[in-house]
Design a protein that fits this description.
single chain; about 160 residues; alpha+beta; 5-stranded antiparallel sheet; 3-stranded antiparallel sheet; 4 helices; about 45% strand
Length: about 160
């Protein structure tokens, strides 16, 4: 059925005074309190299952590669080798590699979801596994896993 205002209020309560809004809620297993001024987050605090407290200024902070987007491109350009099999058989096209950057900033669960040829897929896996040193994403100040899709082309 439709969610009513009452349902929403029970999920998260807020208090507003002089343009300051304190927001108390639960996001999965994470409890949090956020203070907004003029619609901007001023301060957020969250607690994990063990009661450890985290403070933050952004609700969600995206994963970043330690050497930036250019670093990803450079690593691919410098290290990607078109397999002899692909050259000899005139294989061209694109592959799509899915992977997760975990809470520690490591690349895990690497899978080629759009395949091209066995040697091509193997090379795609090797390349993605070279992309080490990520800064993990943070949700409400706590590190979280983020899934990525990386397209790779053989021209």
């Amino acid at each position: 059925g439709m969610a009513t205002a009452a349902d929403w209020m029970s999920a998260a309560s807020f208090i507003s005074m002089a343009g300051l809004i304190a927001f108390l809620g639960k996001d999965g297993s994470v409890y949090y309190k956020e203070i907004y001024k003029k619609g901007k987050l001023k301060k957020g605090e969250s607690w994990d299952k063990k009661g450890k407290k985290y403070t933050y200024k952004e609700v969600f902070k995206q994963t970043t590669y330690s050497r930036g987007m250019k670093g990803i491109a450079n690593t691919i350009i410098k290290n990607f080798r078109v397999p002899a099999f692909a050259k000899n058989n005139n294989i061209r096209g694109s592959m799509l590699v899915n992977f997760t950057v975990n809470k520690k900033g490591n690349v895990v669960d690497v899978k080629v979801v759009r395949k091209l040829c066995k040697p091509c897929d193997k090379e795609a896996l090797r390349i993605v596994n070279l992309l080490k040193q990520w800064i993990p994403a943070k949700s409400r100040g706590q590190n979280v896993n983020v899934k990525y899709a990386l397209p790779l082309r053989i021209e």
